[in-house]
Amino acid sequence: MEKDGENGEQKKQIPLLTPYQMGKFKLSHRIVLAPLTRQRSYNNVPQPHAILYYSQRTTKGGLLIAEATGVSDTAQGYPDTPGIWTKEQVEAWKPIVDAVHAKGGIFFCQIWHVGRVSNRGFQPNGQDPISSTDKPLTPQIRSNGIDVAEFTPPRRLATDEIPEIVQHFRLAARNAMEAGFDGVEIHGAHGYLIDQFMKNQVNDRTDKYGGSLENRCRFALEIVEAVSNEIGPDRVGIRLSPFANYMESGDSDPEALGLYMSKSLNKYNILYCHMVEPRMKTVGEKSECPHSLVPMRKAFKGTFISAGGFDRDDGNKAMAEKRTDLVAYGRLFLANPDLPKRFELNAPLNKYNRDTFYVPEPVIGYTDYPFLETATD
What we know:
By secondary structure, this protein is an alpha/beta fold. The chain has helices at 49-56, 87-102, 162-179, 193-198, 213-231, 254-265, 294-299, 312-320, 331-335, 339-345, 372-375; strands at residues 20-22, 25-27, 31-33, 63-65, 69-70, 106-112, 130-131, 140-141, 148-149, 155-156, 183-188, 236-240, 272-276, 280-282, 285-286, 303-307, 326-329. The chain contains 11 helices and 17 strands. Helix 1 (49-56) packs parallel to helix 2 (87-102), helix 2 (87-102) crosses helix 3 and helix 3 (162-179) packs parallel to helix 5 (213-231).
């Protein structure tokens, strides 16, 4: 990029700011807003304050992935996370999606089921959460470092109940189209329901959804197929974290799992695969790791998005070495609504405040992070 000549005016352009054709979507740069749970959707309904939040982080030709959004009334496990299974929720998403489109952004909805990462308090009629297993999850300190999340031991789904859950993902994808989203990202990461089927440290089933790698991935791929059939594979992505053991969902051979999924996804011609870096064993915590996503990136034929602990230099290096097509940024984008501009200018970044990540505040820690031009006022 340093050469002069006909592209002389672009000689300073960093790899993260180069354009990219993602299927039918023309991206102006490679910096993606990662899906970030913010817990500000009261009663599971997206709120008007999300219009400003997403619009602030939109650039023309930029890709944004919305926060994890429940596919059904059994999908929730956290306070005030949004859903997309009711008419009211679909209507509430519309002005948020419109605001992103008004600024030229491309907006995908991440569709989600928490599985056993829940308790009866979040479930309809106080029933037990559902999972691949009936193994309970140990109580966990919540992200704020203070509260303890208690989980009700889950009920193992019967084989003949699983198609109904697949159907919930299909309907959520249809609803996302109705709300105006450009596509959906299936949340298959971080120890939630799909991951609870894929990972052999959780899945102890003896039916066609358990045992072999192929069987454990069957549920995920049935959802991919159903969602692709519903809205078209050119509007479908999936997020995976084969190496993570978040929510006690580890696997004995994460590389084999990641490779099997990367290759299997090619059959469905979906738009992208969004994978969490092996160094992110837990959410938000980097560790040294010998593994790499390169074999998965090589195996998958569509667009590859990497996430997990990237900064500007790291992202540029991954791009320059062709280790990925796009890089998703979470906490940095949360704290810097104009992150692409700051990366372009190599400007200093706002520091994020972890204490306000999940508070039900419509402004504080949400839409009050300063832009570059206001940071110096």
